[in-house]
Amino acid sequence: MIAKVIGNSKIYGEIEVGGAKNAALPIVAATLATSRKVILERVPNLSDVKEMISMLEKAGMNISLNGNSASFFVKNLDGNLSEVSSKIRASILLLGPLALKTGHAFLSYPGGCAIGKRPVDLHLNGLRKLGFKISMGDKVIEATPIHHPKDVQIYLDFPSVGATEHLMITASIMNETTTVLSNCAREPEVIELQDFLNSAGAKVIGAGTTKIKIVGVPRLSGSHFKIMGDRIEVGTYVIAAMAGEGEVTIKGVKPSTVNFLNFLCKLGGDVKVGEHFVIVKPSRLSAFNISTAPYPGFPTDLQPQATVLACKANGISKITENIFENRFGHVRELEKMGAKIERLENSIKVKGSRQFKAARLLGKDLRETAAITIAAALADGVSEIENFEIMFRGYENVIEKLDRIGIKIVM
Fold first, then answer.
1. Strands 69-74 and 38-41, how do they pair?
2. CA–CA distance, 343 with 326 (Å, rounded to integer)
3. What stretches of 178-240 adopt beta strand conformation (E)?
4. Which residue, among 9, 6, 11, has the nearest Cα to 383 in the 3D structure?
5. Residue 381: other Cβ atoms inside 10 A
6. Phi, psi of 102 (to 5 degrees)
């Protein structure tokens, strides 16, 4: 799918972000662990979330959608999803709870954006410590719970968000098992998952710190839960406004989740945070150095967009990527538009004060496509972006929202 992005955009307006993709995916997966009806509000209308819902339906759940609300009810579960191709990374979150619910689970290897190695070893090693037998074939992973430990200590070699969430969900329904996870991911989405699990009767404490304790219960009940706003969507639109020297009001955000705005203010951004909103005013940007890191560090999911910001800032900026080894695919596309970027090992140096020119571009992953879309909106002329549909994986109603702040996209 090719999108035409009209350049020389004057960025101004007001938008509201949707439910957080990175919170919705684990919460939707966790409905598998419940035994009564669950109603979720603010479920984002995204292709990745639809994929997760489709997988749950194929596993036997009864799911009803009504706009951004959805109800989930566990019916007759089937643990064999080996014939269901997995297009999203988050599908691995189904393995543990599905195996507990059905006696064993078969899952095809998860997919996702091509941004480097994202091994599932942390997930599988954690399940083994929880008493699961794991078998790995060429295309399928099999998990079978074979013994029931009483006390489990799991140290994650890396604070993986996915592994933290997967083990939280699984351990929550291991009755009379006390699990302590150490070196956990601290992202706000992990806290959101804890809040959802506890709303359904789980006993989880510690999310947001490096140590999480889960006391397993026989089953989870139902819940009525509203998903938090998407902080990465907020960051993307804030960066678009800053790069375009525009003025934008962004609603639907929880202030405690957008700690990265402090950094953006330090480099010259005029950003104000209210109780449920963010206001960005025209900014004069200085060069900066950033290194991506697990929360509370600068998020890797905003690194490509930050590269666009560096192209507009005054001076030479340095950006280092510490999470994924293959997340500089946007550099070549920005260079087509006139960016001056020096590539090093896991970092880049960006010469600022650049005016972008229109070009034919290729979207290769979700966040990189967001970055080149911002650049195209600020360029002289009309740019074309191939594979633009990648944006639908993580930005709800993105064409309509961008239109509200002055960025015109024609499909």
1. antiparallel
2. 12
3. 178-182, 203-205, 211-215, 223-226
4. 6
5. 14
6. -115, -10
Closest CA to 179 of 220, 132, 216, 218: 216
Burial of 273 (0-12, 13-18, 19+ CB in 10 A): middle
**SS3 state of residue 79:** coil
- What's residue 324's pLDDT? 86
Bridge partner residues of 211 (DSSP): 182
Q: Give the phi and the psi of residue 124 in degrees, each rounded to 5.
A: -70, -40
Q: What is the pTM of this model?
A: 0.95
The tokens of 385 are what?
Answer: 């972006």
**Strands of 146-288, DSSP E:** 151-155, 178-182, 203-205, 211-215, 223-226, 247-251, 270-273, 277-281
Give the pair of three-digit tokens for residue 405: 């702040």
Angle 277-279-283 from CA coordinates, rounded to 5°: 155
Residue 143 scores a pLDDT above 50? yes
Q: Which of 83, 94, 152, 85 is nearest to 123 (CA)?
A: 94
Which residues are catalytically annotated? 113
List pLDDT tens digits, range 84-120. Answer: 877 788 999 999 999 999 999 999 887 654 444 557 8
Residue ranges and CATH numbers for the domains of the chain are 2-18+229-410 (3.65.10.10), 21-226 (3.65.10.10)
What gap in Å lies between CA 33 and CA 88, rounded to an integer?
A: 20
Q: In what order do the strands lie in the sheet with 38-41?
A: 61-66, 69-74, 38-41, 223-226
Q: What is the rounded distance in angstroms from the CA atom of residue 19 to the CA atom of residue 279?
A: 19
- Retrieve residue 334's tokens: 């920005």
